[in-house]
Automatic annotation (TrEMBL):
One of its GO terms (molecular function) is ribokinase activity. Its cofactor is Mg(2+). K(+) binds at D242, T244, A276, R279, G281, S285. It is found in: Cytoplasm. Coiled coil: none annotated. One of its GO terms (cellular component) is cytosol. It comes from Promicromonospora sukumoe. Substrate binds at N9, A10, D11, G37, K38, G39, A40, N41, E136, D248. Pathway: Carbohydrate metabolism; D-ribose degradation; D-ribose 5-phosphate from beta-D-ribopyranose: step 2/2. This is Ribokinase.
């Protein structure tokens, strides 16, 4: 079982020739709407990986129903997705023809998760269950979730994304920290280290926080630091079309594969992430378990 306590957004993606400069008005070729938010994307990835997934979060009372339905359509349990007086979180994603993007996120209901729902979901976990957190909801809510799940004996995975900016953003009771290079750098600074490159930083952050650490490196795969040993897991070579949600796919697959030896779980997650970058879109680009199995067999 995988429980995600995190963000759910209504994403609007706009495709345009070039990103607008300040003061400029530009026309977009097309607009598309989809489910998004790191929490929701990771829940979808874990569900497609075959896990039984519960999504704990908050959406707007007025506008949240389509988001809840999109999660439920993936087989995700939405019984603890609460309805807020605030509007659902939103993200506006601008994508230009060079593959550059600019993203604006309005947290909305994600800033007001219900503590009672978080406590209920996390107290119900058992050893063998996995809690997944990101950094798109208040750190205090993530800390409550981590402390409660940890006391219940569950494994806590924290994907510190987007990069935390203050020491108060750090979450305790974490078993595994998952970051990309930029987030690793940010976490290293917050715990008082001078960044010295991914390999050294992964080891230093693991020692300082007392957690295992996985750092994703895009096309170069991932670094895994567990029990004092560092392993590099390569990603398959693919033609990247759209890297959106590669990280979320990786984390969701990793959480769903937690029962495997860590290096095997990371290999699976790296393959799933690589498949996601070969396709357009966020949640739509997340591969199914069958597709990943096919890739592993190849
Ligand atoms: P984020 O999107 O959070 O910055 P990364 O870019 O590190 O995360 O990507 C996460 C994972 O997705 C990588 O560890 C890798 O397995 C896969 N991936 C991402 N980009 C590529 C790529 N260009 N080629 C192959 N795999 C990729």
């Amino acid at each position: 079982r995988v429980t995600v306590v995190g963000s759910v957004n209504a994403d609007t993606s706009l495709r345009l020739a070039a990103l607008p400069r300040p003061g400029e008005t530009v026309l977009a070729r097309e607009a598309s709407a989809s489910l998004g938010g790191k929490g929701a994307n990771q829940a979808v990835a874990a569900a497609r990986a075959g896990a039984h997934v519960t999504m704990v979060g908050a959406v707007g009372r007025e506008d949240g129903e389509p988001l809840a339905q999109a999660l439920a359509a993936e087989g995700i349990d939405t019984g603890l997705l609460t309805r807020s007086e605030r509007a659902s979180g939103r993200a506006l994603v601008l994508l230009d023809d060079d593959g550059e993007n600019s993203i604006i996120v309005v947290p909305g209901a994600n800033a007001a998760l219900d503590d009672a729902a978080v406590r209920q979901a996390c107290a119900d976990l058992s050893p063998g269950d996995v809690l997944v957190l990101q950094h798109e909801i208040p750190a205090a809510t993530s800390r409550l979730a981590a402390a409660t799940a940890s006391a219940a004996g569950a494994t806590v995975i924290w994907n510190a994304a987007p990069a935390p900016a203050h020491a108060a953003d750090l979450v305790e009771h974490v078993d595994l920290l998952v970051v990309n290079e930029h987030e690793l750098d940010a976490v290293a600074r917050l715990v008082g280290l001078r960044p010295a490159g991914p390999e050294a930083d992964v080891a230093a952050v693991a020692a300082r926080l007392g957690t295992d650490v996985v750092c994703t490196l895009g096309a170069a795969g991932a670094l895994v630091h567990r029990d004092g040993a560092l392993v590099r897991v390569p990603a398959p070579v693919v033609t990247a079309v759209d890297t959106t949600a590669a990280g979320d796919t990786f984390v969701g697959y990793l959480a769903a594969s937690w029962h495997l030896p860590l290096a095997d779980a990371v290999r699976r997650a790296a393959l799933a992430g690589a498949l996601a970058v070969t396709r357009q879109g966020a949640a739509t680009s997340i591969p199914t378990r069958a597709e990943v199995e096919l890739g592993l067999a190849a």
